[in-house]
Design a protein that fits this description.
By secondary structure, the chain is an alpha/beta fold. The chain has two domains: 28 residues, no CATH class; 123 residues, D-Maltodextrin-Binding Protein, domain 2 (3-Layer(aba) Sandwich). Helices cover 40% and strands 16% of the residues. The protein contains six helices and six strands; from the N terminus they run αββαβααβαβαβ. The N terminus is likely disordered.
Length: 166
């Protein structure tokens, strides 16, 4: 009986440590290089503001300037690029973002058009094939791609001083 009680206590302590971020990453999104906003090569868009990106993520901005629909290409919640993007743009976690989307739906507003793909490479390939699609990926994965365009964010490209998606 005492052994069972001790095992339960260890499991409980491990669960508390994991949920509070005491183990592993310290509770914050993994750090890496800059993120890049990629769109279809034919897009006339050259620049996007962080405010516009936030509005796309929440469904408040659903069309591009040319009136084509915005299709968000995101990655699974556990993906480091996805976690960093949400932390930088919305100051939230994947769970917090999912709750925001539930609130949008509960309020009767339309959800943003979202496609979830499992890697930066797959997100870039989707954007290449779907005009109107946009994705935030690791800049290293987007650099050198001849199939997509990297947008300036607030007038800056990844790697430039003051780039907001660091």
């Amino acid at each position: 009986m005492l052994r069972l009680h001790t095992d339960r206590r260890r499991v409980l302590l491990c669960l508390i440590a994991l949920s509070s971020g005491a183990a592993g990453s310290g509770g914050s999104a993994p750090q890496g290089g800059p993120l890049a906003v990629v769109v279809h090569k034919s897009s006339r868009q050259e620049n996007i503001t962080t405010g516009e990106l936030r509005k796309m993520l929440t469904g408040d901005l659903r069309v591009w300037q040319d009136s084509s629909p915005v299709v968000l290409v995101q990655q699974p919640d556990e993906n480091p690029s996805q976690k960093r993007m949400l932390k930088i743009l919305l100051k939230t976690t994947p769970a917090g973002y999912n709750n925001q989307l539930l609130q949008v739906q509960f309020q009767g507003r339309a959800l943003p058009a979202i496609r979830v793909l499992n890697s930066d490479a797959n997100a870039i390939a989707f954007v290449w094939n779907v005009p109107g699609a946009v994705s935030v990926v690791d800049a290293a994965a987007a650099e050198g791609s001849i199939h997509v365009k990297i947008l300036r964010v607030d007038g800056k490209l990844p790697g430039e001083a003051g780039y907001p998606l660091q």
